[in-house]
Design goal:
alpha+beta; Glutaredoxin; 5-stranded mixed sheet; 4 helices; 5 strands; about 20% strand; elongated
């Protein structure tokens, strides 16, 4: 390969990597709507069978974490604070380090991943990475108001 071809290849590779990074960053922390078929989650689905998690009466913020996740503690604080100040909303954290089968079941590819559940346990939104606070709060308000459309 001549030097000019090598330089063009390296520049193209850098441009592709930069584009991939920009796209990934733009999607991180955003609320994605549920997939075509709504999944319903129960407290028994996210426990080891020893004890059920306590879901909220109106909504649940289901956070999937791991022991070595850098963004999980901040996400825990954000979701916990939102649940504390919003009646009927609960925050449940599941450590995938101890339950790796749940990662496959819920298609968790990164931590934190947060599922936004309505009162019936239906997944109304999904956030990969640390949530964006204003978008999270708006989506939870939509769920509490019974609106069908969640930001995608």
């Amino acid at each position: 390969m001549d030097p000019t071809s090598a330089a063009v290849f390296v520049i193209a590779l850098l441009a592709l990597a930069t584009l991939a990074g920009v796209l990934w960053r733009a999607r991180a922390g955003r609320v994605a709507g549920p997939r075509a078929q709504a999944q319903v989650v129960t407290p028994a689905d996210v426990t080891d069978g020893a004890a059920d998690a306590v879901f909220g009466e109106r909504a649940t913020l289901l956070q999937f974490s791991t022991e070595h996740c850098a963004f999980c503690p901040a996400t825990r604080r954000l979701l916990g604070a939102l649940a504390e100040r919003t009646p009927g909303v609960a925050h449940v954290e599941v450590d995938l380090t101890r339950s790796p089968a749940l990662a496959q079941r819920f298609r968790v590819l990164q931590t934190p991943t947060t599922l936004l559940l309505d009162a019936d346990g239906a997944v109304r939104g999904r956030i990969g990475g640390p949530p964006r606070p204003t978008e999270l709060e708006a989506t939870v308000a939509d769920i509490l108001n019974g609106e069908d459309h969640v930001a995608a």
